[in-house]
Amino acid sequence: MWTIHCVRECGRATLRAEKLHAVRAALARLRRVDREVFTLCVWAGLSHTAAAEALGVPEGTVRSRLSRARTRLARLTDEELKKMRAKPERPLPGGQHLVSRLQTARSTQETIR
């Protein structure tokens, strides 16, 4: 039972790490003005008014840039994930791929039952 739990958690952690990497890559691809607004409003938690004041632009501009940044970030993240998944998996030491190790662990655990 513990092995199955461990395998599942490893799989979830891998997916989270993959998505985080994709988001970081996508964020780097945003236009600078959109990235600034996204960073101020989402990560720093500033209101639209405060972000507009900090950037010296109208509040409506902040709102439209933030909307555009969120939409583009979602699309770019999906693109990054597709690129990452299209690349062949690098073998781990010992010549085995992570997926095959996880499958081996699962089948071993099922055999034990």
What does this structure look like?
With 113 residues, this protein is mostly helical. 81% of the residues lie in helices and 0% in strands. The chain contains 5 helices and no strands. Helix 1 (2-29) packs across helix 4 (59-86). The radius of gyration is 21 Å and the shape is elongated. The mean pLDDT is 80.
Query: What proportion of the residues form beta strands (DSSP E)?
Result: under 5%
The residue ranges in which pLDDT falls below 50 over 5 or more consecutive positions are none
Shape: elongated
The succession of helices and strands, N to C, reads HHHHH
Largest sheet: none
Radius of gyration: 21 Å
Count the DSSP helices. Answer: 5
Average the pLDDT over all residues and give the rounded result: 80
Structural class: mainly alpha
Q: What is the CA–CA distance across the termini?
A: 9 Å
Helix content: over 70%
